[in-house]
């Protein structure tokens, strides 16, 4: 009987595997720079419901870590850039960090940490070199601390780097000519050698969307995977998409420093849906359909054919408080909306089915009340200043050129801004006044393309589903162990 049950289980499990081979291997970035972040338990549930077994964080938020405890989801935790200098200067601090953020979760039923991301894109040119000196020593101190704590064989430190750490010469712009950026080539070589010594992977973020955003002459089709672009010919190897070309430029750079076989993780890849003329749901759907199909087929790239590429999608949900310095699209990277609802069809299994993701469960909304321009408002001279105020504290990026709410009249703009602010302020009474210019309304001002959203209740999503008991038990155990560890 037991053997029959076991056999049945095996048969069932091989079926689930066959149904979602990509989702099993696929990673997801979980960012939390939102005015109303989805509750961590709802996030973990939505990951499970969609069969996602790997997640990448941008910190080690204790609520997120507690929710992940016992879930079996593999985690890449992260050290923010502003901590790198301290961790670089003092090995004792790195040791302490590992104790507090890795060791305390490292038990049966705790959090399955696989990687520690040391910094996030620290060598971006826009950081003016602020993290050039501290990143490598911080990486060394953290990996050494992991090794000394006896977990270095299972948990690897890596540095998620922006793809601008390598390039091909303008005179020979093909992937096989890829080298690390000349101003940091010595440093990159040292980092690669250190990663290799510790059997740790190289992590890079690749954004075909940005290639398009940053260059008006970039051929649209080359950002996607449909093969429609005029190929780039690299010594007889034809490249039809920028993802492959970018990945293989890195492979060439690694090869040039003697580590051509180093495992590469794509730490972020994705497509935003608002805030730019190319940031739209239809393009995101097309991009992911192509990417997921290739991942499912283990296509690899020309330099590394026939292999699965470990990829973390960016990102899970929209984040309405992200800096828009890189562009208005920054707040719209989610494959799910701010409230955990899917935006477009997406088959994580890469079979091209017209499927929707399972939405977040138990999300509760604020009442169906919007804030809009008062139709009887007199003093319209004050409108501009009030719109500016609202947009300083709330997300107005959908109003911009090429975005979903662009092209409205002044009244529409004002209502959009006032409502965005009112929602961020949890519909507080005095948050819909604007010197008498605004009034709450029960009538939805949304148009066919422009969504005047209702925010979710902060921290109010209930946890539903079968894992509730196990997760609660794990959380209690975790709290106990943390108490013990901190004594
Ligand atoms: C980098 O330098 C530019 C120009 O000098 C400046 O505008 C920007 O704020 C600096 N960024 C950082 C992160 O220091
Ligand atoms: C509405 O706001 C957008 C974004 O700020 C701006 O580009 C546009 O000119 C505004 N439209 C009107 C009619 O004021
Ligand atoms: C607008 O938001 C509602 C929920 O607030 C959602 O159901 C709907 O799909 C959204 N529409 C668009 C065009 O995004």
From TrEMBL:
One BP annotation, GO: carbohydrate metabolic process
Topological type in the membrane: Lipid-anchor; GPI-anchor
Localization of this protein: Cell membrane
Secretion signal, residue range per the UniProt entry: 1-18
The reaction(s) this protein catalyses: Hydrolysis of (1->3)-beta-D-glucosidic linkages in (1->3)-beta-D-glucans
InterPro entries on file: GH (IPR017853), Glyco_hydro_17 (IPR000490), Glyco_hydro_17_plant (IPR044965), X8 (IPR012946)
SUPFAM superfamilies, A to Z: (Trans)glycosidases (SSF51445)
UniProt cross-references to SMART domains, sorted A to Z: X8
A family per Pfam: Glyco_hydro_17
Catalytic activity, EC: 3.2.1.39
Limits of the X8 domain: 369-452
GO cellular component: plasma membrane; side of membrane
Top-rank taxon: Eukaryota
Keywords (A to Z) from UniProt: Cell membrane, Disulfide bond, Glycoprotein, Glycosidase, GPI-anchor, Hydrolase, Lipoprotein, Membrane, Plant defense, Signal
GO molecular function terms noted in the UniProt entry: glucan endo-1,3-beta-D-glucosidase activity
UniProt enzyme class: hydrolase
Membership in a protein family: Belongs to the glycosyl hydrolase 17 family.
Name listed for the protein in its UniProt record: glucan endo-1,3-beta-D-glucosidase
Organism: Panicum hallii var. hallii
């Amino acid at each position: 009987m037991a053997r029959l049950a076991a056999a049945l289980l095996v048969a069932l499990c091989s079926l689930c595997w066959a149904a979602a081979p990509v989702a099993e291997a696929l990673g997801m970035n979980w960012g939390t720079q939102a005015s109303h972040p989805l509750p961590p338990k709802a996030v973990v549930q939505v990951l499970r419901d969609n069969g996602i077994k790997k997640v990448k964080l941008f910190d080690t938020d204790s609520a997120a870590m507690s929710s992940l405890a016992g879930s079996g989801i593999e985690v890449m935790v992260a050290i923010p850039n502003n901590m790198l200098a301290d961790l670089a200067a003092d090995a004792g601090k790195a040791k302490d960090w590992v104790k507090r953020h890795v060791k305390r979760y490292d038990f049966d039923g705790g959090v399955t940490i696989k990687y520690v991301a040391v910094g996030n894109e620290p060598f971006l040119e826009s950081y003016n070199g602020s993290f050039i000196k501290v990143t490598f020593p911080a990486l060394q101190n953290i990996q050494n601390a992991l090794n000394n704590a006896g977990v270095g064989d299972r948990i690897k430190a890596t540095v998620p780097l922006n793809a601008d750490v390598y390039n091909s010469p303008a005179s020979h712009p093909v992937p096989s000519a890829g080298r690390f950026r000349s101003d940091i080539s010595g440093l990159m070589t040292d980092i690669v050698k250190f990663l290799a010594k510790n059997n740790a992977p190289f992590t890079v973020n690749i954004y075909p969307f940005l290639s398009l955003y940053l260059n008006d002459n970039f051929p649209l089709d080359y950002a996607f995977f449909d093969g429609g672009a005029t190929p780039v010919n690299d010594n007889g190897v034809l490249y039809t998409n920028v993802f492959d070309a970018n990945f293989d430029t890195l492979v060439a750079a690694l090869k040039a420093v003697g580590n051509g076989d180093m495992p590469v993780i794509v730490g972020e890849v994705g497509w935003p849906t608002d805030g730019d003329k190319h940031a739209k749901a239809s393009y995101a759907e097309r991009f992911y359909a192509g990417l997921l199909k290739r991942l499912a087929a283990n296509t690899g790239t020309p330099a590394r054919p026939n292999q699965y590429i470990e990829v973390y999608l960016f990102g899970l949900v929209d984040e309405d408080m992200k800096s828009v310095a890189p562009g208005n699209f920054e707040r719209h990277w989610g494959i799910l909306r701010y409230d955990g609802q899917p935006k477009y069809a997406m088959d994580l299994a890469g079979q091209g089915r017209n499927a929707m993701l399972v939405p977040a469960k138990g999300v509760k909304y604020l009442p169906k009340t919007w804030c809009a321009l008062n139709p009887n408002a007199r003093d319209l001279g004050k409108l501009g200043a009030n719109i500016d105020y609202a947009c300083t504290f709330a997300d107005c990026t959908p109003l911009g050129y090429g975005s979903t709410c662009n092209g409205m009249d002044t009244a529409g703009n004002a209502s959009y801004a006032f409502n965005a602010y009112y929602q961020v302020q949890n519909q507080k009474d005095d948050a819909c006044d604007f010197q008498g210019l605004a009034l709450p309304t029960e009538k939805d001002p949304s148009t066919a393309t422009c969504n005047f959203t209702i925010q979710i209740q902060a921290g109010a999503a209930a946890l539903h589903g079968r894992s509730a008991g196990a997760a609660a038990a794990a959380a209690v155990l975790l709290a106990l162990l943390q108490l013990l560890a901190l004594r």
